[in-house]
Structure formats: C-alpha cells, structure tokens
Amino acid sequence: xxxxxxxxxxxxxxxxxxxxxxxxxxxxxxxxxxxxxxxxxxxxxxxxxxxxxxxxxxxxxxxxxxxxxxxxxxxxxxxxxxxxxxxxxxxxxxxxxxxxxxxxxxxxxxxxxxxxxxxxxxx
Length: 123
Fold this sequence. Notes:
The protein is mostly beta strands. It contains no helices and eleven strands. The mean pLDDT is 95.
C-alpha cells in the first residue's frame, strides 16, 4: 500500500473542499481507510473512517454533520468531502490504511500513512 493524499488548499470559512486518497499500488480495497489531521502544536486528531466495502463509517465529533467520507474501490480512491469549513479545521490531513477491513478512531490501528495535504481555512 502506498497512499497519496491530495486536494488540500486555502478556502474561506463556510466553504468546501474535497480531499482524495489514492493507493498507487491499488491494494487497499480490502482495508479500512481513515482520515486524521494535525494542526500546528496539537496532537493528531481522528476525522473519519470507512470500512473496506464502504458500508460502515465513523466520524470525529468535531466534523460530524459537516464531513462525509466515501470510497470507490474500482477507482482505488477514498474521498473526504468537507463542507461548512471553519478556521479550526486548518490542519495537515492524512489518510491511512487500517490493518483490518474496518476503520477505527485509533491511529495505532493503521499501518500505512500518506504524506498529508494541507488545508487552510481563513476567517
């Protein structure tokens, strides 16, 4: 598994962004996938996760109702649709492939990590 996160950028508060996570080796279709973020000076935070079939999702409390995770295994992609963005959403966002077919809130359950993409939300 070799993950690549993309789609970050600068957006105004209230705006939207769509992040994508792809696996260049096309092998993570059997893995749960999660998104985490880390803001400067803060600990890594769980954002969202999705099971290998896409039928189970988890969300962090800070993003529930605003963010949506989805996956298309035929395209080897997991997306994170982010709406109603707030300045406190500013962070580097990482995607990760879980050790199991299901995602979790615990970063320790993830084996492979992408390089991260920066999201900046201006007020």
